[in-house]
TrEMBL record, chain A:
Residues 7-244, 256-503 form the ABC transporter domain. Belongs to the ABC transporter superfamily. It holds the Pfam family ABC_tran. GO terms for molecular function: ATP binding; ATP hydrolysis activity. Keywords: ATP-binding, Membrane, Nucleotide-binding, Repeat, Sugar transport, Transport. This is ABC-type sugar transport system ATPase subunit. It comes from Rhizobium pisi. InterPro entries: AAA+_ATPase (IPR003593), ABC_carbohydrate_import_ATPase (IPR050107), ABC_transporter-like_ATP-bd (IPR003439), ABC_transporter-like_CS (IPR017871), P-loop_NTPase (IPR027417). The keyword rRNA-binding does not apply. SMART domains: AAA (SM00382).
From TrEMBL, chains B, D:
It is a multi-pass membrane protein. CDD domains: TM_PBP1_transp_AraH_like. This is Ribose transport system permease protein. It is found in: Cell membrane. It comes from Rhizobium pisi. The lineage of its organism: Bacteria, Pseudomonadati, Pseudomonadota, Alphaproteobacteria, Hyphomicrobiales. The chain crosses the membrane at residues 20-41, 53-72, 78-96, 103-124, 130-148, 169-189, 218-239, 251-268. GO terms for cellular component: plasma membrane. One of its GO terms (molecular function) is transmembrane transporter activity.
């Protein structure tokens, strides 16, 4: 390289307890460059970013040089003040605070006496939102927003720090196509303006779309850096996984027929959220619900499962031909439903609990011995099985789930619901944060349980998932089902058009 | 769907209304309480009783302002009652030599000092504030006994007593000071960057830290402010009563925490409105006052108090549930 | 009963207090210590362990009494927080092991002791009512502010006051409960003035709330309301002197401790102390206040 | 790169060690305290002193078992002291007519009943348990005064007193009962499905609810169990002391909460080890004992107590920090 890199890591290491998360990391980025960072779940990407963000301190001396001087931030504030700004992998906003408060947190405009300048704050927030095409009221509490908007807000928040180096950890997971484009445009634009960007993502097409260089991590090591222009996706995948990925034919094209109705939903209505939704799910079928964000996908999943807060005004359910109430999660679970929610942090994991305890929570009563005591041996076996089945990278079933990488946590949660042996499996954004290899495995797993007679419903804005995995798909628009696709009609462009227009595409 | 940016004025107004909703409803519950009490005891609404109530609740209001900040920040301060007593004891015992202004001034350092010590232990030692301030409470109470020698200290300068006894425009000065403290707390919590940090840390300290907020420093400052409030209240109480003993304000911490929780501040932190805390303090003061006016049998007074507290909070919650359904 | 001069002797004694931060109880200790000094000149040394029962917690005082036994004491002086609750360990531990017990104030409902020194509490209450009646109009309204509805000596004082006040034709209103503190005295007095503007007198079982109530009366210009109380301290003494507290029933805690310690050492050196020492309560008013100027309760602890 | 399953046995063993680490270290802190005390007073380690201590701390241990369950579940029970007093009062006043076994039996319904009422208000009314049980505390205390008429009730059947006074193999029976209660709590919390639910709800009630756990029912049961513990402790205390007054065990709630927090249970719920709570209770009991042995001036006793509490918890935290670095 001609110019001295702006940020350079040499031989960075990090251990957690006994586990060496980073063994030998070499990495550098020049001014105005976009550098992709890819690797399997648990490879160490987030750990590296957290070190740069001042959250973790690396082992041993400082292997990091920034702007020509040694860089060793003690905390997030040090990093932020030196222009290194991070968008962390998991949603990092304060739910009880408003949009404006969140994006300007610790960066508020103040006037005389240190008083906030409320009008300036609102104007600033409104302008930022407009700039990123976000049509939301700055005074909305963040809790009330869907996940993708929250993700976008994190990006907006990062921009208020005027980054010199922007570290983006899976910035596009749970975003819709349109939003992904907004983010990618932003990345390109920032690079043009001289900001250096580290772009961590499991969406390799996005990585290839914006990055100048790609560094591949495996098992805590950087195994190499490639020029994007000199490589291909499959080459990168091979480096990541050490094996090839075979593109499979999409399921709908195989045209499997399913006739036995398993669950039928009629006239499901949640005022202001869901509008008169009726459909049948067949045994062995994988059904997809997609649409733009805000079209009510998560709400539908939750309304079926009977989550409190989803006040059903109307709606009847028939499971295996028998009417059922599905009044609350406990009842739904008993009837054979399972729901994987899309908010891993708030509604998914119990961070301090072991993998086993997370996995076995819904079925804990099954491990009761006649004495009333738990069969701890079997419980542990179940945890161990989950780790093996989903190839979770963990030190063992006793490890607290918070010590896992994001993608591995997601796998544990999928395992959790699988252990309930559901008849109907509702999956809301199941592949968030999952690496390409595992995504493939999870797809296979879902197909396998479908083949065993389970009815699966996937709720996702990820049209590729729908295309690959579903027998049939419904498109939602503002809480209403506006289209149904099957067979060869189940195809990306038709779905997208319907999602946007709210009208069935030809 | 989502609201266009141009409608922001309207949305903001609605937002404000929505945020004030809890406050308005709590006021409604308070009104119900007041009406019932006035019906039972006609003297309840007399000017003099209201003046008394105002003066009586002033120290608790001031302490509640500090406690609200600490609790929104996600911590507790169990030491407030003891720090109040120690401050008043020091202030009273310094007055003869120093004069009352310097004595007050010196004594106002006690609370922040205790807050600083507790804050350092909580943040650097990683000890829960509940335990830490339980410890500092005992230390402060002990020192109060040492300072007073177990005696009542009295005979304070009349000029000082004025602070506790004056009633400009008929409103007791302690109450005016207390309200000013609450307003100060409100400004600090809602109109300053510091306030945003306090809420953010209480809601999610990890996110706050990742946003570059110095969690330790903020927590320490919150505890120091709460200590300052306790010291301030100590001087106000001293001026009102004109005497102090080491035992003063025992149990005040729980009365105030109860008031703060009744006022809607969550025990976990991150949420709450200091203005509603006033209502919490008023409810507790009203109940005590009411017990005295309504001539309820001694043995049954706690029963009535407990029931009224539960009923008032239930009523509040019930109303909110009905409100949120429309 | 003067003991025979003993040869060099040393005893380890315990004094179980119930509310050791209170002036009254500290004064008892001071009295006991004076006696100890006098005995030392006679060659009797005392090693005194004072316990505090977690300040007003009877269950903890039971634990203290047990701890003192563990310490191997030769004799126990006790100010029992409760006459019934504390009687049990006294019987089961001290009486059973023949360790002498001296009770100062309150009294025990059962068990055995070598000496009991006490003020006649109910009589004190009656004296208070007598003096109150002399200073308010016939049939005037009087009230008790009660800080200890379950504490025996307080129950006795209140009963004495109320029964005597009724006998004397005063109108006795239902008691108000409050905490034992300055600010509760102040607040309760404020509330009472509102509710019963024609209240003529209040009786208290302790000086602290009396001082608080006086602050109310002064602020409200209602010094016509008469306050009578048990116990005193420098502030309460001054208020009597200034005529702001009508009268105080003064006990003699110093004497309780002094006599109690003398009884204990008399017993331990082979003598026979008096089983019951009744100390007369005395009425302190503006007129005789000078007689009380040297009371240990009145002398400021720090001035000493 | 998952770890080969064959290594799991080792991992498990390490896991167990890691989980017990906190416990082992707290025991170490306790030992330091004990050694210091033995140096100050040779009689500290005498059999009789230890017997006394065991008996003295028994009611608090039993209540702490209940409080631990409630606090791991994410709630508080402020009413334990009052419920204890009410139970003992009822039990004592029923004994003459009913005999002591039926009297105990009847009285043991009081705590669960209070727990049920509080539980219903907390879960269906949505009122924080802190406020709810503050209310029920006042109600229980008031009823205790009504039942006793403000008098001490004593003169209990000698057969009943045996429960409080017997010392099989030299160990006070109340202590044996208390340890049995703790072990029962430990089994309940760690070896049963119910226990897993209690922890899960405390950690994140939303996740628990989505996993099909009945949050309301579990919370109610926890409060009922805590009530039962309080009632149980009430009878033990009664048997030990042989008399009861309405005022008994005032403030016990905060002593026990402090012990539970010292024992490492987080105030927010979801975390904690009931075995370590024993240490919290022992620390607090030792301190009182220590004050008596070390002859600290009464005015300075609170100072010493506060400092020891902070120092013990700090030492514990410090040790853990050093431990986790290796
Ligand atoms: N706080 C922690 N304590 C213990 N282990 C941790 C901790 N944080 C990360 N690890 C471990 O470090 C390794 C790397 O994790 P990291 O989160 O960096 O992976 P990642 O590459 O970001 O994966 P993903 O794609 O799933 O987000 C994992 O094995 C993880 O379990
Ligand atoms: N109870 C409710 N009342 C009114 N609006 C609601 C309610 N709950 C959610 N919403 C709103 O409905 C919209 C739909 O959110 P939802 O979570 O279903 O989006 P989604 O289509 O699943 O997208 P994603 O999964 O990407 O978040 C959001 O704008 C959300 O704020
Ligand atoms: O009654 C006792 C004493 O006699 C004294 O009055 C102090 O307070 C009470 O505890
Ligand atoms: Mg990651
Ligand atoms: Mg969704």
């Amino acid at each position: 390289m001609l110019i001295e890199p702006l940020l350079k890591c040499s031989n960075v290491r990090k251990t957690f307890g006994g586990l060496q998360a980073l063994k030998e990391v070499h990495f550098e980025i020049g001014k105005g460059q976009v550098h992709g960072l890819v690797g399997e779940n648990g490879a160490g990407k987030s750990t590296l970013l957290r070190i740069l963000a001042g959250v973790h301190q690396p082992d041993g001396g400082t292997g990091i040089v920034y702007n020509g001087t040694s860089y060793a931030p003690h905390n997030a504030n040090d990093a932020l003040r030196s222009g290194i700004v991070t968008i962390h992998q998991d949603i990092n906003l304060i739910g009880t605070m408003t949009v404006a408060e969140n994006i300007l947190l610790n960066n508020e405009p103040t006037g005389a006496w240190g008083l906030l300048r409320a009008s300036k704050m609102n104007k600033l927030a409104a302008n930022l939102l407009k700039q990123y095409h976000l049509d939301i009221d700055p005074s909305t509490p963040v809790n009330e927003l869907p996940n993708d908007i929250k993700k976008m807000l994190q990006i907006v928040k990062a921009m208020t720090w005027n980054p010199k180096v922007l570290l983006m950890d899976e910035p596009t997971s749970s975003l819709t196509n349109v939003e992904v484009e907004v983010v990618l445009d932003l990345v390109r634009d920032l690079a043009k303006r001289g900001v250096s960007i580290v772009f961590v993502s499991h969406y390799l097409s996005e990585v290839f779309a914006v990055c100048d260089d790609i560094t591949i991590m495996r098992d805590g090591r950087t195994v190499g850096t490639l020029r994007t222009s000199d490589t291909t996706i499959s080459q990168v995948v091979r480096h990541m996984l050490g094996r090839e990925l075979v593109e499979e034919q999409s399921r709908s094209a195989r045209g499997t027929q399913h006739n036995e109705v398993l669950l039928s939903v009629r006239n499901l209505t949640v005022p202001g959220v869901l509008n008169d939704i009726s459909f049948d799910l067949h045994r062995g079928e994988i059904l997809g619900f997609t649409g733009l964000t805000g079209s009510g996908l998560s709400e539908l999943a939750r309304a079926i499962y009977g989550v409190s807060g989803m006040r059903r005004e109307k709606g009847t359910f028939e499971l295996e031909g028998k009417a059922t109430g599905l009044a609350n999660p406990a009842q739904s679970l008993k009837q054979g439903l399972a729901l994987l929610t899309n908010d891993r942090l708030r509604e998914g994991i119990l961070p301090d609990f072991s993998i086993t305890d997370n996995v076995c929570l819904p079925i804990i009563d099954r491990y009761r011995k006649p004495t009333g005591l738990l069969n701890l041996g079997e419980l542990n076996a179940a945890g161990r099985e989950a780790i093996t089945k989903l190839r979770v990278k963990a030190s063992g079933p006793d490890a607290p789930i918070k010590s896992l990488s994001g993608g591995n946590q997601q796998k544990v949660l999928i395992a959790k619901w699988l252990t309930t042996n559901p008849k109907v499996f509702l999956l809301d954004d199941p592949t968030v944060g999952i690496d390409v290899g595992s995504k493939d495995e999870i797809r296979k797993l879902i197909e396998q349980i479908a083949a065993e007679g389970v009815g699966v419903i996937i709720f996702t804005t990820e049209i590729p998932d729908i295309e690959k995995l579903c027998d049939r798909a419904f498109v939602m628009f503002r809480g209403t089902v506006v289209g149904e696709f099957q067979g060869e009609k189940l195809e990306k462009n038709r779905i997208l058009e319907t999602s946007v227009s709210g009208r069935m595409a030809a | 769907m989502t609201m266009p940016i141009t409608e922001n004025a309207g949305a903001n107004w609605k937002g404000t209304l929505r945020r004030s909703y809890g406050l308005i409803q709590s006021v409604a519950v308070l009104l119900v309480l007041v009406i019932i009490m006035s019906l039972i005891s006609p003297r309840f609404m007399s000017v003099i009783n209201i003046q008394n109530l105002m003066a009586q609740m002033s120290p608790a209001l001031i302490v509640a302002a500090g406690m609200t900040i600490v609790m929104i920040n996600g911590e507790f301060d169990i030491s407030v009652g003891a720090v109040l007593a120690l401050t008043a004891a020091v202030s009273a015992s310094l007055m003869p030599q120093l004069g009352f202004v310097p004595a007050i001034f010196v004594s106002l350092f006690i609370g922040p000092l205790f807050g600083l010590i507790a804050g350092l232990i909580v943040t650097y030692g990683g000890i829960p504030s509940f335990i830490t301030t339980l410890g500092t409470m005992m230390i402060a109470r002990s020192l109060a006994f040492v300072v007073t020698g177990g005696q009542v200290i009295s005979d304070l300068p009349p000029a000082f007593r004025v602070i506790g006894l004056a009633r400009p425009l008929g409103i007791p000065l302690p109450f005016i000071i207390a309200m000013a403290t609450i307003v100060f707390g409100w400004i600090l919590l809602t109109q300053t960057a510091f306030g945003k940090k306090v809420y953010a840390i209480g809601a999610n300290r990890l996110v706050a830290a990742l946003s570059g907020i110095s969690v330790k420093r903020t927590k320490i400052i919150c505890l120091m402010l709460c200590g300052l409030a306790a010291s301030f209240a100590g001087n106000i109480l001293l001026a009102r009563i004109g005497a102090i003993q080491a035992d003063t304000a025992r149990g005040l911490e729980f009365e105030v925490i109860a008031a703060v929780v009744i006022g809607g501040v969550s025990l976990g932190g991150g949420q709450g409105n200091i203005m509603r805390v006033i209502i919490g303090v008023v409810v507790i003061a009203l109940i005590r006052n009411f017990m005295n006016l309504a001539r309820i049998d001694i043995f049954w007074q706690d029963f009535a108090t407990g029931s009224i507290i539960i009923a008032a909070v239930l009523l509040d919650a019930l109303q909110k549930r009905i409100g949120s359904q429309t | 009963a003067d003991p025979v001069r003993a040869q060099e002797k040393s005893f380890r004694l315990g004094y179980s207090q119930f509310w050791g931060t209170n002036t009254f109880l500290r004064t008892q200790i001071a009295g006991a210590q004076k006696a100890m000094k006098e005995w030392e000149t006679k060659g009797v040394k005392v090693d005194l362990i004072v316990t505090n029962g977690g300040d007003t917690d009877t269950t903890k005082q039971v634990a203290d009494v047990e701890d003192l036994y563990t310490q191997g004491i030769d004799g126990l002086l006790i100010f029992p927080g409760d006459s019934v609750v504390l009687a049990d360990p006294i019987k089961n531990i001290y009486n059973a092991n023949n360790i002498p017990v001296v009770v100062t104030d309150i009294g025990l409902g059962s068990g055995d002791w070598v000496s009991y020194v006490v003020t006649a509490n109910e009589q004190g209450g009656r004296m208070a009512a007598d003096y109150m009646a002399k200073n308010v109009k016939p049939g005037a309204k009087v009230i008790v502010f009660d800080h200890g509805p379950a504490v025996q000596c307080i129950i006795d004082r209140n009963r004495g006051f109320e029964e005597r006040a009724k006998e004397l034709g005063l109108e006795v209103l239902p008691r108000k409960v409050m905490k034992l503190s300055l600010e509760d005295g102040r607040r309760t007095m404020e509330d009472t003035l509102t509710e019963i503007p024609d209240i003529a007198g209040v009786f208290f079982q302790n000086h602290a709330p009396t001082i608080g109530a006086e602050a109310t009366l002064e602020a409200a210009n209602r010094l016509d309301v008469k306050l009578v109380n048990f116990d005193t301290d420098p502030t309460a003494y001054r208020l009597v002197k200034e005529g702001k507290i009508l009268g105080t029933i003064v006990q003699n805690p110093f004497e309780m401790g002094y006599v109690g310690m003398n009884s204990m050492l008399t017993k331990l050196t082979g003598g026979t102390p008096e089983k019951l020492v009744q100390l007369e309560p005395r009425l302190m008013t503006k007129d005789n206040v000078a007689e009380f100027a040297d009371e240990p309760q009145v002398l400021d602890a720090k001035a000493k």
